[in-house]
Design brief:
There is one protein chain. The protein is mostly helical. The chain has one domain. Helix content is about 80%, strand content about 0%. It is globular.
Amino acid sequence: MAAPLLTPRPLPDRRLPVVAGGAVVALALPIFLVSGWRLQGWALGAVLWAASQLLGLVFARIGIGEPNLRGSGVVAFGMMARGILLMVVALAVAVSDPELALAGALVYAVAYSVELGLGLTLYFGGEPRG
């Protein structure tokens, strides 16, 4: 049963999950407007999500595909640092305005969850190698 999950697959194109996450961020704006919630919360979530995407793009360019492991190590530590950096920003906002931080974190969390879920679906839906 575990063998299909452990079989390597080619990495799928990242554009579709990123576009889906961006669509979630965009669709959250009218929800904030109609509900009367503070737009700063939506903006915080949108900025966090965009910063995460930008950092992810930078680390992807550094190189998972290099022939040595240096690029993979840099990407791995960079991805961990990306999450830590975003949470430091969210915590700093939470200290001064908890409601704003909660709204921003919710927008970011839903967009990230959609992106991650779609990315995993595309990866495990792909044909295994070898």
